[in-house]
Specification:
single chain, about 180 residues, alpha+beta, Jelly Rolls, seven-stranded antiparallel sheet, 3 helices, about 15% helix
């Protein structure tokens, strides 16, 4: 990951306060009962998710630790403009996600798969809180720490291996923006 800079003037305190006081949608969603997991995979229903679930639970992760909370444009009550470090060009689209990890929550090391809407994508990451002991972001072979609220980074490879965890005592809140070439 490449450090871009700090954008504290862009980050609004009311956004941070809202996330600290609310949870978004729990992720990953465990939509399939254990006895139907293989059937869901065979039918292609959220197959990628099911493979994720199987892989990490087979390694010993417990369902309740594989959890974080997601906010996006559909469930966040504020209009969030693109941050100034994102240079959206003509023919590009974007989406953003906001992640909240309570103490004990984690997302194991993984690589996001390219999707049809992420053609020539770029990913950016920003913390919404100052780094605290136990707030973990691993990208490729590096731990990203310490950082300040509104520090922004660009993924050097948008599909690079990464993982996150909160083994601290306070919530961990991060923001990710993905830009991509729109298909015509």
């Amino acid at each position: 990951m490449k450090y871009i800079g700090n954008f504290k003037d862009w980050l609004k305190p009311e956004w941070v306060e809202y996330v600290l006081n609310n949870d978004g949608n729990p992720q990953p969603k465990y939509e399939f009962e254990e006895n139907d997991l293989m059937g869901a995979i065979e039918r292609g229903d959220r197959a990628e998710f099911c493979e994720f679930q199987q892989k990490y639970e087979a390694a010993g992760y417990k369902h309740n630790s594989l959890l974080y909370y997601l906010f996006d444009q559909d469930n966040f009550p504020f209009e969030v403009p693109l941050p100034p470090f994102v240079n959206l060009k003509e023919g590009q689209g974007y989406y953003w996600n906001l992640f909240k990890y309570h103490p004990g929550n984690l997302l194991p090391v993984h690589s996001d798969k390219a999707t049809k809407w992420e053609n020539n994508c770029e990913r950016y990451w920003m913390s919404w809180l100052d780094w605290q002991d136990g707030h973990i972001l691993i990208y490729e072979d590096k731990m990203i720490a310490p950082y300040k609220a509104a520090d922004a980074y660009k993924f050097t490879d948008p599909f690079g291996t990464h993982g996150a965890a909160n083994i601290g005592l306070t919530p961990r809140i991060t923001f990710q923006v993905t830009i991509f070439d729109e298909q015509h």
